[in-house]
Amino acid sequence: MMRALYFSVPALALLLGGTVLAQDRGEPAPAPRPGAAPPRGFNPDRFFQQYDRNKDGYLERNELPEPLREQFEAFDANRDGRISREELQRGMASITPKRQPSDMIYVLIEMSDCEDGCTAEVQRAYDILRRLDTNKNGKIDPDELKDGRERLIKARVNALFKDLDANQDGRISREEARGQIRGDFDRIDANRDGFIDRNELMHAAEQRPPQPARPGAAALPERR
Which CATH number covers residue 197? Predict the structure, then answer.
């Protein structure tokens, strides 16, 4: 039920979602991003059917939902005082700011529809963040975040060793490795001794995933 509800969000909610999140974060209205795609699931025809009250094929400022009227100029590209379907489609990027990891909290709250213990996951997120605040000052500082990350990685590595180190010799052999660890065995096995020890797995777990290249950005030369 929750999944069905989440993927049937009305078009207006898709339109307003980015603006609401930006306002809650205290950010200014996002600037247009040329070439950006509208939110997944947005249907301009359906939006026009709902809000084009005089059915002339255009949207005037007073026909837009109240929260979108301030964005009128961002949509009205040819400055003729009305918005066409094409302008609405292109202008979607101007009210869709870049998502940030913290926005998942809003998604979590929206999906908690009180059918199956609605508060459980939200409470779990709160408890996780509260545990990071070890000095209990109501804030998470960089050292607390670093300590929390290290504890989390260590716990995952310990769990992997418990699961994979069948002979309990403190190392994972190629035969014992499974899944992603087996696929990346040679990369993780830094000293090339044919085993993955705890330090090697910790080092691999601490590495950040490669960042996708920005469109149009020149590739950096590979270091030798």
Answer: 1.10.238.10
Two tokens, residue 221: 């030369």
pLDDT tens by residue, 140-165: 999 999 999 999 999 999 999 999 99
3-state secondary structure of 213: coil
Residue 28 CB coordination number (10 Å): 8
| Residue 74, domain extent | 2-95
* Model confidence at 220: pLDDT above 60: no
Alpha helices in 99-184 (DSSP H): 104-111, 120-132, 142-164, 179-183
Distance, CA of 149 to CA of 21 (rounded, Å): 26
Does residue 222 sit within a domain? no
Contact 15, 93 (CB under 8 A): no
Contact 9/41 with Cβ under 8 angstroms? yes
74 belongs to a structural domain: yes
CATH number of the domain to which 21 belongs: 1.10.238
Overall number of domains in the chain: 2
Residue 53 to residue 50: CA distance in whole angstroms:
8
Of 69, 95, 121, which marks where a domain is finished?
A: 95
Domain end point (choices 95, 123, 147): 95
Dump pLDDT digits (tens) for 20-34.
444 455 544 444 444
* Whether 92 contacts 42, CB under 8 Å: yes
Its pTM stands at 0.49
